[in-house]
Amino acid sequence: MSFDPLVLLPPILCDARAFGAQLAGLSPEGAIMYAPTCQGERVEEIASQILGYAPSRFALAGQAMGATVALEIIRRAPDRVSKLALISATVHGERPEGASAIEPRIVAARSGRFDEVIGQELNPSWLAQSSPRAEITQLVTDMAWNQGPDAYVKQARAMQRRRDQQPTLSQITQPTWVICGAEDSLLPVIRHEFIAEMIPNATLKVVEGAGHLPTLEQPDQMNDLLRAFLKA
Q: For residues 174 and 32, what is the distance between their CA atoms, to the nearest angstrom?
C-alpha cells in the first residue's frame, strides 16, 4: 500500500541521521523526505522555507524541535498536511528563565566551546537506561559538528523565540499520532497525554525502552509505528 510523501523534521543539532533507520526502512514503500531545521532564526521562517520545497500534500513527522516546526507548518498550511506525527514534542512557548538559559549556550557556541553546548543540549540521562547512550551521544555529537555552531545558534534562537502552540492543537483536524518514549525524563509521557487530549482525533503511542530520541533508541519500533501511521 502506498502513502502520501512523508516529510521528516529532526531534533536540534541533528541531521538526516536522526532518521537513518526510518529512511532506510520506509523508503522502499513510498517517498520519504528529510527537511533541515537550521535555516532560520525563527520557527516561522523555518516552516516557510520547508513549505517552499515540500510536496503539495504530504504527511509530516517531527521529533523534538522538529515537532515544534511541524506545528507551525500545520498552523500555516493545514490543507497541505494529510496527517501528523509529533514525536517527543513540546507545545509551550519558551519561559523567560528558559530563554535566559539559552544565552550562555549561544555565547559558548560562538566562542569555541561547542562541545560543551552539545553536552548541555543532549543529556544522556534523557535517554532510556537500556538504550546505547554512549553510541547515541557520539552520533548526536557528530551530527552537531556536521551542522556547526552557526547552525546551532539559529536553532537555539528559533526555539528561544517559539510561540505557544496550544491554541493550534484544537484546530488540528488531520489524523495525528503523538509519540513519546516511555522513559523520556525531559518530556515525560504525562505531557504527551496532555497534547493528545488537546488534539481531536489524536492517538497516543508510547515507545517502550526509549527516552527522548526514540528514532535512535528503538528504531525498529519506530519504523513499525510510522509504517502503521502512514498506512492507517
A: 19
> Using an 8 Å Cβ cutoff, are 33 and 5 in contact?
yes
- Distance between CA atoms of residues 71 and 121, nearest Å: 21
Closest CA to 155 of 143, 165, 167: 143
The phi and psi torsions of 202 (rounded to 5 degrees) equal -90, 150
Q: What would you measure as the largest C-alpha separation in the chain, in angstroms?
A: 51
Sign of the CA dihedral with 21 first, then 159, 208, and 138 last: positive
The predicted-structure confidence for 93-126, as pLDDT tens digits, reads as follows 998 898 999 999 999 999 999 999 999 999 999 9
Measured distance CA(202)–CA(9) in Å, rounded: 19
Residues 45-80 have pLDDT tens digits of: 999 999 999 999 999 999 999 999 999 999 999 999
Q: Over the range 164-175, which residues count as b (16 or more CB within 10 Å of their CB) and which as e?
A: ebeebbeebebb
Provide the residue ranges of all domains of the chain, joining segments of one domain with +.
Answer: 6-94+154-231
Indicate whether 2 pLDDT > 80: no
Q: Is the pTM of this model over 0.90?
A: yes
Q: Is 6-94+154-231 CATH 3.40.50.1820?
A: yes
Tell me the β-bridge partners of 7: 33, 60
Q: Looking at the DSSP assignment, which residues form a beta bridge with residue 155?
A: none
